Amino acid sequence: MSYDRGVDLGFVRSYNESVVLGLVRDGAATRVELAELTGLTPQAVSKIIARLVAAGLVAEGGTRNVGVGKPRTLLTVVPGGAHAFGVHVDRDELRVVLTDLTGAVVHRSSTPLSAGFTPAVVVDALAAAVSSAAVSSVSVERLLGVGIGIAGPLDFRDGVVHDATGLPGWHDVPLRELVSARLGLPVLVDKDTNVAVVAEAWRRGPEFRDAAVVYVGTGVGAGLLLDGTVHRGARSGAGEFGHTTIQLDGPACACGRTGCVEAVHRVRVESGDLPAAADVLGVAVMDLVRLLDISHVVLSGRSVLDAPGAYLSGVRARVPSSEWLPVEVSVTALGADLVAVGAAQLVLGQLFA
Ligand SMILES: [Zn+2]
Q1: Cβ of 293: how many Cβ atoms within 10 Å?
Q2: What is the pLDDT of residue 4?
Q3: Which segments of the chain have a pLDDT < 50?
Q4: How far is the centre of ligand 1, averaged over its atoms, from the C-alpha of 221 (Å)?
Q5: Which backbone phi and psi does 193 adopt, to 5 degrees?
Q6: Fewer CB within 10 Å, N side or C side of the chain?
């Protein structure tokens, strides 16, 4: 992955170092295993490990007996080796987390945002949250950067938010530049649903390869993981699942069309019929499963967190899981932190190949 102005990767000097660091994170615990997995010589692996230990990213601790030969030294990722901030700009709240190198949250805060908030309000609130967390928790040279998840349409490549849905006044906002200039840190900006899928992929590990994180908040969207990679599409616009048509003569939608999943779902929520609302989502999710052949569906967002049982059973009823077509439907374990955590992990992820 490359960014025209991304995170400073001074922590990791070569591609092979990031490969080895990623394998240690995923559980490869000895130099012998690392040499087998990478095809590098034992000497090369030892050199890389020495560099990662000196950089404070990997530690040696304990040994494992392997029968013949001397016990093998075990390697682990050092949690405090690097940190990143993750930010969720929601429609009424700014949520900020600080995560360590393992992706675990070590500090969190949230600030209410009043209706019609401007980019300047977000930058001010973010600066305040970051400085209070940074002072108390982490040294600046261990800080990799800031990841921000926000509603699209936006361009992931340059961090410009074009016309964030539901955020009036947000037109062609160079959010990455604004925040980077204010904080003096590298910044990445991505769609809220994309970083949500980053967070689930980090938590679930390599077996989580073809998946959708369905986000049901003020709007409805989906983050897509296809063949192990976040799918952003040609213009960072993929995953506008809420604005696919489910009813040709359906209700008007905020996007200007009619009968979108989001609009039909909203009407049913407003009528107080939650099972019927969940059923709309279930039908639409099954279309997604058919279209993309995904094996995991993770439900998330405020509406789901308020009534997880209703959404789980509504979606599971429409997404049958057979022996030959297993589809796991679950609710995110990261709760309201999901987007902020994923945004931080987007930044940390650049250290790992
Ligand atoms: Zn729509």
Answers
A1: 11
A2: 35
A3: 1-8
A4: 10
A5: -70, -30
A6: N
**pLDDT 10s digits, 294-311:** 999 999 999 999 999 999
pLDDT at 2: 34
- Ligand 1: distance of its center to the CA of 216 in Å? 14
Distance 251 CA to ligand 1 centre (A): 10
**What tens digit of pLDDT does each residue of 7-33 get?**
445 677 788 999 999 999 888 889 999
How many angstroms does the Cα of residue 213 sit away from the middle of ligand 1? 19
Q: What is the CA radius of gyration of the chain?
A: 21
Domains in the chain, start-ordered, CATH in brackets? 15-77 (1.10.10.10), 81-195+339-351 (3.30.420.40), 204-333 (3.30.420.40)
C-alpha 324 to ligand 1 mean position (Å): 34
Query: Ligand 1 center to residue 207 CA distance, Å?
Result: 33
Across the beta sheet with 171-173, the strand order is: 154-155, 160-163, 171-173
Question: Ligand 1 center to residue 148 CA distance, Å?
Answer: 24
CB distance 173 to 148 below 8 Å: no
